[in-house]
Design a protein that fits this description.
The chain is an alpha+beta fold and about 475 residues long. It contains 11 helices and 24 strands. The strands form 4 sheets. The chain has a 7-stranded mixed β-barrel. It has a 6-stranded mixed β-sheet with strand order 1-2-3-15-4-7, with helices on one face. The longest helix has 23 residues. It is globular. The model has no long low-confidence stretch (mean pLDDT about 95).
């Protein structure tokens, strides 16, 4: 039940999990411990946008890790991927683009009681297939790069079939080439017939037993793939459908409370500045700055003090005059860009005011007012608050209505303000009428398993207080 961890959450998760393997040199120095280079049953990697982690590996270990992380805070969201790492599908080409084709794969069934999210369509770059593809074609594909459901991107597919491990991979239909660790030549285990070995660089530091174990584990999985594919129906009779479910793949999306919970876990192991993970999640530059401060300073002061919002935003943004997006997350894993606006004011208590020019057409949700040319939206977003108001005004300056969104604690990052919408909201019409809306959507999200009972109760309490105050 070993686990390999990489990314900005590594130190905290190393302190949280047992049986960590293949630790990087900085982690070994940080914990003054040698972690074995043996194969990992699960892998935890930070997403490209630093907002969460991807879990891949054996179903039991990945499920255990997912549930453990789900308990970090009320604003942690966990889903199983519809297109998991390594899953093999009979896919149908539904669209051809300039650089590749969009493939409908159908997805896999849920492996446990956690909700499922993400695309059922993947993207096959032309560089990852040897044949020409056209709309309506069917072909066998494998998930090469899963994509977080909130990323807006499709998982990347390929036509080569392989099974991945932390130290090596097996490639179907390919012979083993040269290279690899010196000990590979004397391993008592050979890959299954028809599979070739590709060794990872980390294999150079592994012992004979670890190399043998990983090759044996990969061989068992490769035989499972062979069993699924050798007697399978042709792709045209299966597409879209799954041949082989691949590795268990889960996505974990952290919120502000969760990041501070990870700070506390990390702080038990090593000195940790206030807002460590909150700052690192902002930009790569901010992440490097945190590492520099913690490496340079023996005394980080009151490490349990509040997140230094002003210091961080002065250095990395946003500042007045900057443009920021409003990233509107959904509990089912999707994320919508509500548009970018100008920061017209920023206060030391963590609030930014964003002004957006609205395009005409349609109506404002729940307000029932038409969007007209010249309308502006003025939104006040405060770091850590469970709600934010948007006032819509016409070209003449008259208020057209106010929409108060109830959400997970707001995070004001340099390029975007982020949160997850909790469905229930409160609106105030131009005539002063106050209305609470979308309670039914909140109830449905709880029933679907997308929102916990505790989080839903918090949302209802916040909505009730807002409605009363308005």
């Amino acid at each position: 039940m070993t686990v390999r961890i990489r990314g900005i959450y590594t130190t905290a998760l190393t302190a949280l999990f047992e049986e960590v393997v293949q630790a990087s040199p900085p982690i070994q120095r940080r914990f003054d411990e040698e972690f074995p280079p043996e194969p990992a049953a699960a892998s935890v990697t930070t997403t490209d946008d630093r907002q969460g982690v991807c879990l891949t590996g054996t179903g039991e270990r990945v499920g255990d890790i997912a549930r453990q992380l789900d308990e970090l805070g009320r604003d942690t969201f966990v889903w199983q991927a519809r297109l998991p790492q390594g899953a093999v599908f009979a896919g149908e080409v539904v669209e051809t683009l300039g650089s590749g084709a969009v493939i409908d794969c159908g997805g896999v069934e849920a492996g446990n009681d956690l909700p499922v999210a993400g695309e059922t369509q993947g993207f096959l770059p032309y560089s990852k297939t040897s044949g020409h593809v056209e709309e309506g074609d069917t072909l066998r594909v494998q998930v090469d790069e899963p994509r977080a459901p909130w990323s807006g991107g499709r998982p990347v597919l390929e036509t080569t079939v392989r099974v991945h491990g932390g130290l090596a991979s097996l490639v179907r239909g390919r012979s083993t080439g040269g290279g690899g660790p010196e000990l590979a030549e004397i391993l008592p285990v050979d890959p299954p017939t028809g599979w070739g070995v590709e060794w990872d660089r980390s294999a150079d530091d592994a012992g004979l037993d670890a190399l043998g174990d990983v090759l044996e584990q990969l061989g068992e999985r490769a035989e499972g793939v062979d069993d699924a594919l050798d007697d399978a129906e042709p792709v045209e009779g299966v597409a879209p459908g799954c041949y082989w479910p691949g590795e268990a793949t889960h996505w974990v999306w952290f919120g502000r409370e969760s990041r501070f919970a990870l700070d506390g876990i990390r702080r038990e192991a090593v000195p940790t500045m206030p807002g460590h993970h909150r700052t690192k999640a902002g930009t790569n530059a901010a992440s490097a700055a945190v590492d520099f401060v913690e490496a340079l300073c023996d005394d980080l002061g009151d490490t349990k003090s509040d997140f230094p919002f002003t210091v961080v935003t002065d250095q990395f943004g946003p500042q007045e005059g900057d443009s920021v997006r409003i990233d509107h997350g959904k509990p089912d894993g999707r994320l919508f860009d509500l548009g970018a606006g100008e920061v017209t004011e920023r206060t030391d208590d963590g609030q930014v005011t964003v002004r957006r020019q609205m395009s005409p057409g349609g109506t404002y949700d729940a307000l029932g007012v038409e969007r007209q040319a010249g309308d502006v939206a003025v939104t006040k977003l405060k770091e850590g608050r469970w709600w934010y108001p948007t006032v819509y005004r016409g070209e003449d300056g008259e208020t057209r209505g106010t929409y108060v969104n109830v959400c997970t604690p707001v995070e004001v990052f340099p390029d975007a303000v982020r949160y997850v919408d909790l469905h229930v909201d409160v609106v105030k019409h131009a005539d002063g009428t106050v209305e609470r809306v979308d309670d039914d959507e909140l109830d449905a999200a709880v029933e679907a398993g997308h929102i916990s009972t505790a989080l839903a109760e918090k949302a209802r309490t916040v909505a009730a207080a807002i409605a009363k105050s308005l």
